[in-house]
Design brief:
alpha/beta, 7-stranded mixed beta sheet, 20% strand, binds NADPH dihydro-nicotinamide-adenine-dinucleotide phosphate
Amino acid sequence: MSSLKHFEAVAGALALPGSAVIDGELRPAIAGATFDNISPRNGTLLNRVAAGDERDIDAAVRAARKAFDDGRWRRLHYREKKRILFRLAELMERDIEALAVLESLDVGKPISDALGGDIPNAIRTLRYYAEALDKVYGEVGPGTSDRFSFAVHEPLGVIGAIVPWNFPLHMAMWKVAPALAMGNSVVLKPAEQSPLTALKLGELALEAGVPAGVLNVVPGLGSAAGKALALHMDVDMIAFTGSGAVGRLLMQYSGQSNLKRVSLELGGKSPQIVFSDCPDLEAAAAHAAWGVFYNQGEVCTAASRLLVEEAIADKFLDKLLGVARGIVAGDPLEPKTNFGAMVTAEQMQTALRYIETATREGGDLRLGGKRTRVDTGGFYVEPTVFDGLTPEATLAREEVFGPVLGVLRFKDRDDAIRVANDTVYGLAAGLWTSDINLAHRAAREIKAGLVWINGWDSCDITMPFGGFKQSGFGRDRSLHALHKYADLKSVSITLR
Ligand code: NDP
């Protein structure tokens, strides 16, 4: 049985990656700059990482373009591409413990989540797209007796992937795997808070035989490396997950440069709606609690608004609080921990500010509300629950991206759907009911890209993932994601 000691020993023996991966080489930043990579586990310096800027991004984009144009990956036989991507998946499996420890150290997530969730999910994603790459078919048009027409999916070229810190490797893989599977080259810019597994992925890709220049990883600040990538004239698409504020900038950068495509996954304020005919209150309470507290609440689909029907609200809330009290908060490297540290001091302060605001606005604090484990130097906040919110409350409207749940009680079922939709976001929603008609109707009425009925987030790679409204556009996961990284070309042959 693995223990804290074991994972500390693994962490101690790891060489932490800090160099960019550009054109098949590990490189420092051209300017020689680095940034400090801090562990949220205890606030200490993990390592110094190359701080890429415009010049590093330009070198990576040039390498990616050259690789794309000379066809070293794009023109490779599909069997060979598949073999290499499967080999990469094997190498990730070989190094799964190291990858999980890197992720846990970097962002403070429980090692059991990293080892049982993040890294296996990233590997599954890679295998899914490796398996799918030779199953992408074009179309034959109706044509005429003297014209044969068909449409083919052509890779876009150079993809810039800008990814967040909450599921660093998993989110990176949602973009890198389908982009590579379609024959593109990629420049990946990990978040400054979480560069380690992306850099390791770049190294493993080279070991697996992904040709030089096809997958480049450039760490650096968003305002320097991210911006340079999004403004670059030779990048064909930016695939992004992160905040709405940066999403808006990316669309501006696209307009200011080469009108590159942009796909945005921007988070939400997802409702979990529990009707009084909920078929299983215990299961619903567990899903409602974990729907918001999983990964310390740093989840774009976090079920941060609980809408519960008045008739069962007290009973349901007691059950939910019972589950929440059983959460084992602690050292991320301790295998028993299922609730770790928040990613940065700033993110922790953001959560604490929302707690303060909810208290000031008259929310009824039922659980948590404080920073904990202060003596560790890490960034820990208790699972927190506020009851008695109105739909106008700040906590009912704004994304916290932390472990703070707001409870809203409803009497009128139609009103519940109205309140659920009363948000600028539209990423995910949950519904708990035994009434199949209500379930179907509500699922169709709710403006969200993902609706889960009598369950919460099965993380199913076969189904599209993405938002409505200000939660963004474009889909990750499923075969739809492959098409996102391709252009449709119509070819007509005049027959003589
Ligand atoms: P950001 O949106 O700032 O970061 C996401 C990615 O964008 C990072 O790689 C970041 O780089 C990069 N970036 C930042 N500025 C620019 C820019 N000007 N041009 C190009 N790329 C840029 O998220 P934060 O980390 O600041 O988190 C803030 C809030 O965003 C959270 O509280 C949460 O609400 C939301 N968020 C949503 C996520 C989701 O899954 N939808 C994930 C993460 C955050 P770098 O980090 O190096 O600056």
